[in-house]
Amino acid sequence: MSSKIPALKSIRSELSKDWNGIWDNSALAIGLYATDASVYSEDPLAVAIPKDIDAFKEVVRVALKHKTPIIPRGAGTSLAGQVVGNGLVVDSSKYLKKVIEINAKEKYAWVEPGVVRDELNFELDKHGLYFGPETSTTNRCTIGGMIGNNSCGSRSIVYGSVRNHLLELKFIGADGKEHHIGRGIKPDPFVENLCNKLKGFLDDQTLAEIKAVYPKSNISRRNHGYALDCVLQENGELDLCKLFAGSEGTLGVITQAKINLSPLPGKHQALLCLMCSSVDFALKTNISALNYNPTASELIDDNIIRCTENQIGQQENRFFIKGNPGAILVVEFCEEEENILEQKLNGLTKEVVHLGLIADHSIVQGDDMNRVWNLRKAGLGLLSNIPGDAKPVAVVEDTAVDPIDLPAYIQEFNVALQKRNLSAVHYAHAGSGELHLRPVLDLKSDAGRKAFFDIAMDVALLVKKYRGALSGEHGDGRLRGYFIKTMYGERIYKLFQDVKRLWDPEHLFNPGKIVETPHPIENLRFSVHYHKPELNTGFHFRQFKSLQGAVELCNGSGDCVKSEIIAGTLCPSYQATKDEKDSTRGRANILRRTLAKGNPDLNNPELKKALEYCISCKACKRECPSNVDMAKIKAEVSYQNSKNSFKLAQWAISRGYGVLLKARALRAPASLLFPLLRGPLQISSKRSAPNFSFEAIPFIPSKSGIWIYVDEFTAVESPKLVIELQKITQFLKLDVGILPPFESARSAISMGDLKHAKKLIHNNINLLKKYEVNELIGIEPSAYLGLKEEWLDLCGDNHLKLCQELAGKIKGYDSFLLEHFSDHGTPKFNDLESKKPIQIHEHCHHKALVGKPQVQEILKILGYQEVETLDSGCCGMAGFFGYQKKNYQISKAIANNKLLPKIKQDSVLIAAGTSCRHQIKDLKNRKALHPITFIHRTLGL
Ligand SMILES: Cc1cc2nc3c(=O)[nH]c(=O)nc-3n(C[C@H](O)[C@H](O)[C@H](O)COP(=O)(O)OP(=O)(O)OC[C@H]3O[C@@H](n4cnc5c(N)ncnc54)[C@H](O)[C@@H]3O)c2cc1C
Ligand code: SF4
Ligand code: SF4
């Protein structure tokens, strides 16, 4: 590595003065870009993030001149270590996102490499067109990365892989110049030389050997080695695009791609979900399904089905599961004619019932189809959600065989695992003979690493026996290049080396991939240098055993690096800055590296930078398929650091509302004091003061055991809500009491003041013991949801059972009211509070931990017609975070990303979060009403 440092300096200094990009070789950048979604990790030399295509070309050219290895990178979601290596990482995902041309008539588009596949399809939809190849990562993966990996997905039965849709390419070759390739494009001398030499390699004997050792011709998914089997066309010419697709950045750097577009899929669509007793039955069902020309046939096994039971984001997607299936085959049909769709659904169902292959089935249509696909796609991430060091590992996760061979192959595969006392999860693309099989291995142990290699070799030999593909879609990367000799023999491997040398004589384009790959257990994330630190943590980490266990849930899948254009909230800070350091993945990567040092300095500058903009919104807890809970992790890190350096501001913020709550009379002086607190607490001058209110909150006893829980934020800023809520419950003729206010511990948790949080929780539980509690109704989401979340991991073992009982009894005012309004057959209100359209912004914690739009449902019951719950992401205020001077800009950027542009001029705006209402007031100059106030007014109470 050290010999490359002078080269790096030369590259940096040779880049033109006005080079438009970011050059970063800080420890933070190195840590962020050392890994992808694979099990590999190796420090790059530096990271370049060009801001336009000229800057991209320039940095590649200069790096080549200085003989520095280049690792082209898109979203970094590769599963085999394709973007891991000791070179200059050139990231195209942040700025190179231009759709250069869409030609709807001739059905093609020219795009830059950083364009995200789903974002492109949003554009194409306007033209009735579609880029067919897909991956489970389509909402963040880039076209450059898709070409690099020759990606394909669930619908590959119809659309094939990227190779089938790549028409032309512009790329920087080893000479540092841009070249244009594609069928019918006149080759320049550089390209002509490549073609002539390549033709020389592909003599009849070699072509015959390729035909004999490559996967069977009907296995369309094949991503192992170079695609020399399809580069030669019938007219004797070479189609270099076919070779470039799947070459993993080893032949050159793509600057533009011309891709083929397809018409939108048939408008009559349905999923036939077939409940089978076992994987074997499902794979036999798959053979029947393929006779009906489906657009996809996908397997979900019982491990995944079980994992979704406890994943908050997936529970609502389980609606189509019937009984207790051992496996589900999801078969998709898209037809132009409705009656053809009916015939196929009925025909296949009858056939598989007759063959005794299924126990039950369900048919899913419309928007619900996305929910089924969400569950299927989340499979991989969900599997990481297993406590402990052993995790399902990507090692043999991507083999493809002829679908007819699949049942027999899988049986042998499982026997091979059993021999080594292993088992695997089975899911994905049964229709094209590919299952993602992940054995559970502990890569932190020598035995686990040995098993990793042994099972990879066993499976390579098994796939060879079936003449399958060792990789169907995920590619070779650092993982599978080693096995090319085993699969194709020495001569073909040597041919690959010749191809690489021809295109890249100095081995500068993504070296160590496909050829000259290091041994597969080199540079694993969890290597022999990995340590487990002994930390006395504030949280118990009851589920994942340690802080490290909670951090290592992140497998790098990259669901948290999708842009604001894509639905959902994850991750608001990344969406605002598009910096890897501000994504959940970036944070987890820096933390994992820090903790693995054994005696970690959790106050290191890299970690501080990575965590600074995490607003503890908990979107990751819901939307990350592994449920990484960065809010909790950040609180723990702050706690660990506060043990060594006590900060007055942290203390004041953690306890401020508690003080105000106890000494309610203090609120008037606090309002007056607020301007004086701006300096010491570093509050932005652009922030208005909170509205402290003095309305008294009575204690009202309850015989029914149903109580309103009055948290500190509601009591100090909006006590009126308590009274209004109680009146609404009276209207519903319910006996609901009001408890004396108590502090939820939210501020203490956010500030990492975990000792104090524990004390509060302990006292709260003791207080609640004094009352007969059957139901608790919460108002402020961040406060009452803490009882379902952090309290359970902060309370002592002696209180755990009680705390779990309380967690089962607490619900939001919205869930509570929705139950009772619908129960009572509430009449519609003619005299509505407003005739304007209503827009609801839900609090982040509500989105993350509850999810359902209950306020919208209540308002519809009350008679409002135009009610919309916004896909508004996070408001960016996040308690005290948005008040702080240093966070004002990012707080504003987050709000501007999703929430503020969605607010209509003439709407009634409703928001349950105290912070959300404050943010809307400060940045939009609009008053958002609390749902309770709005309902209260509607009822005319
Ligand atoms: C949960 C999960 C599910 C997945 N499911 C699928 C699936 O269904 N199907 C599938 O095919 N893959 C799948 N993948 C793998 C991966 O997401 C895809 O291959 C994806 O297309 C990679 O895109 P990316 O932008 O992340 O590329 P990266 O990972 O950044 O790069 C991929 C390759 O392309 C090269 N590359 C990137 N840009 C350029 C460029 N400008 N010039 C030359 N080379 C370049 C890189 O060097 C690398 O070799 C999955 C991954 C995960 C984590
Ligand atoms: S935090 Fe979650 S979504 Fe993000 S990369 Fe890690 S596992 Fe994937
Ligand atoms: S808590 Fe929110 S801001 Fe922090 S990492 Fe998770 S999604 Fe991102």
TrEMBL record:
Keyword check for Oxidoreductase: yes
SUPFAM superfamilies registered for this protein in UniProt: alpha-helical ferredoxin, FAD-binding/transporter-associated domain-like, FAD-linked oxidases, C-terminal domain
Highest taxon, organism lineage: Bacteria
InterPro entries associated with the record: 4Fe4S_Fe-S-bd, 4Fe4S_Fe_S_CS, Cys_rich_dom, FAD-bd_oxidored_4_C, FAD-bd_PCMH, FAD-bd_PCMH-like_sf, FAD-bd_PCMH_sub1, FAD-bd_PCMH_sub2
Parts of the chain that traverse the membrane: none
GO biological process: lactate catabolic process
Cofactor(s) for this UniProt protein: FAD
Record keywords, A-Z: FAD, Flavoprotein, Iron, Iron-sulfur, Metal-binding, Oxidoreductase
Domain named 4Fe-4S ferredoxin-type: residues: 603-636
Residue ranges of every copy of the FAD-binding PCMH-type domain listed in the record: 40-264
Kinase as UniProt keyword: no
Protein's recorded name: FAD-binding oxidoreductase
Naturally occurring in which organism (per UniProt): Luteibaculum oceani
Lineage of producing organism: Bacteria, Pseudomonadati, Bacteroidota, Flavobacteriia, Flavobacteriales
